[in-house]
Write a structure and sequence with these properties.
two-stranded antiparallel ribbon; Farnesyl Diphosphate Synthase; 396 residues; mainly alpha; 2 strands; 1% strand
Length: 396
Amino acid sequence: MMLPGRLLLAGLLRSASTASSAPRMPTNMGCWDRFTWSSCYFHSTIDNTSSKAGLTAKKQLDPLALIKDEVSEVTDRLRSMVVAEVPELTSAAGYFFRAGAEGKRTCPTVLLLMASAISMEMTDGLENRPRARHRRVAEITEMIHIASLIHDDVLDDADTRRGMDSLNFTVGKKLAVLAGDFLLFRAFSAAVSLDNTEVLSLLATAVNNLVTGELMQMSITPAQRCSMDYYLQKTYYKTAALISNSCKAIAVLAGQTTEVQALAYQYGRHLGIAYQLIDDILDFTGTSASLGKASLSDIHQGIVTAPILFAIEEFPELHEIVEKGFDDPSNVEMVRIALKYLSKSQGIERTRLLAAEHAKLAADAIDGLPESEDQVILDSRQALKDLTQKFMRRTK
């Protein structure tokens, strides 16, 4: 049942690229939706034009290369921070910190770049100095992030993660849950050492948001399943809350003004939402090999994401099908019908445009930071902006 839907989507994307470079505006949209759709397309067009012109003026920075060594240092520290008294727990807690299983380390990359973008303190090995404290926030955030992934895999009964066996598949659900709990304990033990109650509160808020988002997904009603507002709120909690609050924590530790703290938070918020929206697209258009997990996994788990929600706006008859849900094994035919409607809709294109709008808002937040003539700061800010486009182009 998965192959026809994927072929339909592939055909849609091919025909769209050959017929016209500009997606058509759906006809059954309200005034506000038309404004949002037009705004997204306008910004996307401007960004594409300006980026092509800009490439001749300057070489685009590689966000990962700027702080590659420092991210490696954070990864090494993480391996030592997850050592427990019981060897089995050490092995389980360090499962995603092993060489070859580290992933992209997106959180540390974003946070260290943010630290460079707003602070002059670049190098210092002492724990009570800004840069070392910023590295500590990167380590804490990554541990919380990995803990949330482990717990998510247990709840979803997932077999794979990052192209390898999930932890719960490898060691069982009970030890996987304990490993996630242990990572949260290590994270907040490290957070206490920062001796900053505001930062501790921000990190606690992020964990609360993660839990809230998961509960929103578990207890969703038929009406909420078809609500874009509900979906975006859940997306913020599950995907963007951690990085946005951690970005703000970086600014707090740097002694920045409330305005700069707010801009750092907004960057993380919009970057996280854009990232998830691209994830939504890849779940329909990617392959299991490229994603490191089963494709079409969301819809087969009964999770309705942005492409389907946009398709509902074009085809109201899909509303009733979505309300019934897809998590019931007997609803395989409904999944096939939903994918057919998606292939006829602008759901994929509109999701990409919405992601582009959030990516632009993240870049705008960086542009709003106080002016600086320091080249390291300027390079770091440009790298943060380039990172938004890197996420937009990703295929896995």
